[in-house]
Structure formats: C-alpha cells, structure tokens
Write a structure and sequence with these properties.
11 helices; 20% strand; single chain; 384 residues; alpha/beta
Amino acid sequence: MTHEVAITGFGVLTAFGPGAANLRGGVFAGRQVFAPVTRFDTARFHARHAATLPSDPPLTQYEALLACARAAMEMSGADVRRAPVLVGTGGDFARARPREGGADCEPQALSDLVDTLPAVLPERLGAELGLGTPRIAFVNACTASTTALAHGAELIRQGLADTVVCGGAHLVSEDGFAKFDSGRALSPTGVQRPFSTGRDGLLLGDGAAVLVLESAERVVERAGSVLAWLRGWGLSSDAHHPIRPHPQGHGLEAAASAAIRMAGIDPQDIDYVNAHGTGTLFNDPAEATALHRLLGPALGRTPVTSTKSTTGHMLEATGAVEAVITLLALREQTVPPTAGHLGDDPACPLDAVPNTPRQADLRYVLSLNAAFGGANAALLLERS
C-alpha cells in the first residue's frame, strides 16, 4: 500500500522578507530585489549584486531554518515529535571568520567549526524543536532541498513515516560568491533575465524554506487542512559535464518524466512549470529543449517562468523555496512572472510570462531544479 503525500504547512524566507505576504509583494509582483552587496567587500569581483536580506549581523543558516520550521509547524498544527528532519544545505561556512591579517579560517573554538558542517543543521534543528529521526543533510548542490522533499515524500509514500519536516537554506557568503564569480557565472549587469534576450548570468540570493509533509490518513485523523498534494517526484543524473547541463536537457527531462509518471497524469495535464531558469547561456536553452520534448505541442499553451529572476539563485535552498512559490501559485491561481525579461530569445522559445503575473486555472504544476555535476530534480504538485 502506498500513501498520498500532503503539504500541510510551510515557512519561507527570501530577500523580500519572511512569509507568504512578502513573496506575493516580491516574487508574484515581478519585483527584483538585487542590489550591491554590502555583506562583504566585492571590490575584487567582476560582479557586485545579489539578493540579500538586510540583517546586522547577518542571519546564520540555522537561524533562518529555525524560523521557517517554527512557522511551518505552527501553520500545519501537526504532531511532529517523531517526524524525520531532512535539510538541503551546503554548510554554514560563512560563520568561520578569517584571522586578522591573513586568509586562514580560525573559528574561536573547535565547536564553532563543527557547527558549520552540513550534518549539524538537521541535528540541531531536530534537538531544538523536539523532532524525530532520521536527521539527514542533503548536499547535492542546487537540487539539495528538492531531494530532501522527494526523500521525505518517499518515506510517507512507503509508510515509513506519517509526518516529515523538510527544507533547506542558503545565505549569500563571500566564499560562495567568489566561486561563482571566478567561473564568470554571475551577471555583471546586476539583473537576472532567464529565457530572455540579453541574459548574461545568474545572481545569488538569500533563501530558506521548511515544509511539513503528512500522509493523507494522518491529516484526516487529526482533521487537518491540506495546502496542496505532492503527487510526484523524480531525480536523475545526466553525467554530461562537471558544470554544464546536457545541451538537450536529457537529465532534466528524465526527472520531470519520472514525477509525471508517479502522479499518473499525462504531460499535457501540466498547467504551469516553475523552471530552474538561471539566466545563463547554457542552462536556459537546455531546459527549453527538455520541456519541448516533454510537453510537445502543449508547451505552446503552458506558461514556463523562472522566479529566480526575482529571488536570485538560492543554491541548496532553491528547491524548497520554489516549492513554496509553486504551492502559492496553485492556491492563488496565479502564475508568477519572469522578471527582467527584455524579449523572446529564439534559443528559448517559451511562454515565459514576461514581467507581469497572470491569472490561470492551475491544477497540476511542475517545479524543476538542476545542479552542477548533472543532478536534476522535479516535484509535481496538485491543487487541494
């Protein structure tokens, strides 16, 4: 026997601020929040901009996750005392401060260094909130929190858990910024334009989200409310290149196809795709090609947008945050736009819903993510 997976609560944080209201006022309005970074000195970098949440001192990943988890648990009302905790993270190495006069990292104590490790985040979160086990960190880059959600949903589907707490966090740090800048992946103009003419790279963003997943039986038993159904999920690896996606998008297509098959629907039933859409030279055409094969003629009437155009790329957190955005799209019957769009790019022939949100009849929506190393992930949500 397999079990249906319900989403019953969420907490979310982006550079627009915490909660759904800030997502509506930012992401769904097509408002871009990119600004020159003040969190660290960018003088030595080619790029200068990111989407960062004002905070002095900056939040830690743990603080962001904890706030989101509390909000998700309050919204859900579920008994989470035995719930596994699954978190997508790259670690919180921004907490390790450089030694005066040198480049070496020297935390004040060994325990400070240990607290930056990925596995510590779900452990601390579980201990603080009285959650259950296992407590697992997923570190597969930009598909990390999508994988956490897929793994959590599979635990429920197989009857191994009735409630799971899943999420992810990423905060813009000098270390991460330097790596993307050195690879010339960041937009030097400070605007992210997925699927658009004039696109010249991605921009990083702060983000965190936690979702509570429950079995349908558990929700009925406690007379809870379902925000949306998580009907399908898929993971794949195209093993094409350490950084670039396969130019035909084979891995992303495989992950999306798996999610659609699990949901038991046809590709033509998809009403909206929240794309990975990084605004880079290689990602966007590969993703568009994958979607053309996946959806066929139906793609012409299917909106495909990238909300990274507003939030920035939140790396390990992006899948969880975009799952919340996709959930809100379903509940509000609104397609969030692709902001910063200057015009259609022949390499990415999609209905990108440029710059302005669109009302639509949405039942099934697909959220896609991809990562360095050829990792791909997909989630398929249904309106409750």
